[in-house]
Structures are given as structure tokens and as C-alpha cells.
Design goal:
This protein is of the alpha+beta class. Helices cover 24% and strands 23% of the residues. The radius of gyration is 30 Å and the shape is globular.
């Protein structure tokens, strides 16, 4: 007899490609431990050019992942205040970007989108800032769950209203103009539902950067219909192969995670293990940015004066009865050259300071604007 383990609740696989770009500005990670009833994905699409966009996406991914990993130690406590926690980790990543641009002015204007789907049993929470899509494939149909914080929805609405020609809209230069993004300044729009989305067995969740959208929604839907019974790794391979077949000279960076929901059951509350909550506030001021070394002299400690004798008469001894003979003072010696030590100034990345308003900044290859 051959023993086989049961299918995991989630079948997860990720894919990433540099596309036709000179450098990779996407950062993605997924955490779905085998046997766990929960997991999450963190995807950040950086912008701002070489040595800036890739830094921004890595900062965002590192801060968000470490915070969520801490909170997912107790998923029940996480769910009790999931929207608050998700907004908090986004604000933390945004503040870290702010501190980095302060200490590295050459990276001013860098930013990153963020999309985080967090799954607990059959419940899907998410936070989304920017234009990285979160898709749901169910019953042969593909739908986008999160908001698109770019000008594309407004342009498409103008097409539906007859105010713009479809061909003009498809190639409009402002389609990829972002209206919300993490840049270390105020975040204009955040998509973070207050209630979870209920998943079903057989659902496929696709978390992706906008590089995947070089394929149309119809093309992605067709591919998922064709391989919906395959493992997530096979779906990921076919999705990458389909994007490579486009051979688009402007292909953006590609990153995505495929999550197949095999089990959508919910454990009865009485069967859930009970214990003290570990989802406490995580200590802040852990992430720091080291700036240029500063040379500072080391000051030698001042020698302590001898302790004064206690008040009262001294015992009568031969030494006390003899008059005190003045002792010559020692000749002053030239001070040696003071020792010097390298002290690294450290800039704390988590300060409780207010942030200023987001001002329009033109980014390459995308732009950030403010719609009031």
C-alpha cells in the first residue's frame, strides 16, 4: 500500500522575470507553510529608475513581510484586527521609504506599489496601493478584486461614456499614471476591505505586478481555463511562457503568485486551539539605515579624587603625631595624541512624525499625480 498525504489547503507557486527591462524592480515573496491554515503574499513593484526602484521595492517587501510574519504567529488575533494591521504595515513601509530618501537624497522620487493578499482558511483579506492587480478565477471567469489606482479606470469610463475612442484610450499616455503609491509621503488611496472575501474550493487567486497585464484579461482567463486542473507550478510556467511568446520589446518586469484553493472548509470554533494571544505590538525602531562614518575623539575619563577621611578624631599613631611633610608635585607630562574611533551615525527608520502632502512627481516609466 502506498501512503499519500492529503492535498494541502493551498497550492502555491510564484514566477518572476525581468522582461525586456535593463534591471528588475519587482520584489515578491510568499509564505504558506505546509500544514498551515493561513499564508500571505507580499508583492512590491518599484519605480524611479536604476538604484532607486529596486531599492524601494526591497524596502517595502522587507518591512511588510517581517511585520506580517510576526502577526501571523497568531492568525486568530490577526483576524480580530486585520484591516488595522494591514494598514499599519503599509504605513510602516512608507515611513521607512521616507527615512531612506532623507538620508539618501539621490533616491528622492522613488516609490513602489504594494499588494498583499492574506488568507486564513477560506477568508481572503488584502491591502492594495497602486496598480498591481489581484485576480480571482472562479467558474471559468476572471475578475479583479482590488482597486486600480491609476488613470486607466477613468480612461475606460470615458470610453464607455462615448467620450473617447477605444483605440485612443488603449494607447493613452496617461493610462499608467498612478494616483496612489508608496513614496514616503501621504498615501492618497488605500484599498483595504473591512471584511474578508469568502473563497471556494477550486478558486485560483492570482497576485501580480502590472507586467502580467501585457496579456489581456481574456488571454489570462483562457490560460487559467485550460490549466485550471494542473498544479500551481505548471500554471506559473505556462503563464511565463505565454508572456515570453509576446516578445514585446517594452515588456515590463513580471512577478506573480498563483494560489489554488484546494480546501475551503472552516474549522468549528470549539476545535480551534486556545491560548494566550501572541499578536502583541511588535517592538519598533528595529530597522536602521547607517549613513557615512563620523570620526569622533575618545575622551579619557577624569580620575576620581581620593575619598576624604571620615569626620572625627584620628587614632593616635606615630604617623599621625608627626607633622606632615609637603610632597613635591609631579611634573606635568605632555598629553598623548588623543585616540580616535570611528562612530557610525545611525538614522532610526521608525519615528512618530507627521508626513507632508504628496506632491506631483514625474517618474520613469510611470508617473504619480494627485487627483483632488
Amino acid at each position: 500500500m502506498i501512503w499519500r498525504s492529503r492535498e494541502p489547503r493551498y497550492d502555491v507557486a510564484s514566477g518572476i522575470s525581468q522582461g525586456a527591462r535593463d534591471y528588475q524592480e519587482d520584489a515578491i515573496t510568499a509564505d504558506f507553510p505546509v500544514g498551515a491554515e493561513a499564508g500571505f503574499v507580499v508583492l512590491a513593484d518599484g519605480m524611479g529608475g536604476h538604484a532607486a526602484g529596486d531599492v524601494a521595492s526591497k524596502i517595502v517587501l522587507t518591512e511588510v513581510f517581517s511585520e506580517l510574519k510576526f502577526h501571523f504567529a497568531d492568525v486568530h488575533a490577526f483576524e480580530a484586527r486585520a484591516p488595522e494591521i494591514l494598514r499599519g504595515v503599509a504605513e510602516l513601509a512608507n515611513e521607512t521609504l521616507r527615512q531612506h530618501t532623507r538620508t539618501h537624497p539621490e533616491t528622492e522620487g522613488m516609490g513602489a506599489t504594494l499588494v498583499v493578499p492574506a488568507l486564513v482558511e477560506n477568508r481572503l483579506w488584502w491591502i492594495s496601493i497602486g496598480d498591481s492587480p489581484l485576480f480571482l478565477f472562479r467558474g471559468g471567469r476572471l475578475t479583479q478584486l482590488n482597486e486600480d489606482h491609476s488613470m486607466a479606470p477613468q480612461i475606460d469610463f470615458m470610453v464607455k461614456s462615448g467620450l473617447m475612442d477605444p483605440e485612443v484610450a488603449a494607447n493613452h499616455p496617461d493610462r499608467n499614471c498612478l494616483i496612489s503609491v508608496l513614496m514616503g509621503t501621504r498615501i492618497p488611496k488605500i484599498d483595504c476591505p473591512t471584511r474578508p472575501y469568502e473563497l471556494q474550493a477550486g478558486d485560483i487567486v492570482l497576485c501580480a505586478s502590472d507586467g502580467v497585464q501585457f496579456l489581456t484579461n481574456a488571454q489570462i482567463e483562457k490560460l487559467l481555463n485550460r490549466y485550471r486542473k494542473a498544479r500551481s507550478t505548471e500554471i506559473a510556467e505556462h503563464l511565463l511562457a505565454e508572456l515570453e511568446r509576446l516578445d514585446d520589446p517594452d515588456q515590463d518586469n513580471i512577478s506573480f503568485t498563483v494560489i489554488k484553493v484546494n480546501d475551503a472548509s472552516v474549522k468549528p470554533k470549539q476545535d480551534r486551539p486556545r491560548g494566550p494571544s501572541v499578536a502583541v505590538a511588535r517592538p519598533r525602531r528595529l530597522t536602521t539605515v547607517a549613513v557615512e562614518p563620523v570620526i569622533a575623539p575618545v575622551i579619557a575619563p577624569v580620575p576620581k579624587a581620593p575619598a576624604a577621611p571620615p569626620p572625627g578624631p584620628l587614632p593616635r599613631t606615630a604617623a599621625n603625631l608627626q607633622p606632615a611633610t609637603p610632597q613635591p608635585l609631579p611634573e606635568p607630562k605632555p598629553d598623548p595624541k588623543p585616540a580616535r574611533v570611528v562612530v557610525t551615525a545611525v538614522q532610526e527608520s521608525h519615528r512618530d512624525t507627521s508626513v507632508e502632502d504628496l506632491s506631483p512627481v514625474r517618474l520613469r516609466p510611470r508617473r504619480v499625480t494627485v487627483i483632488k
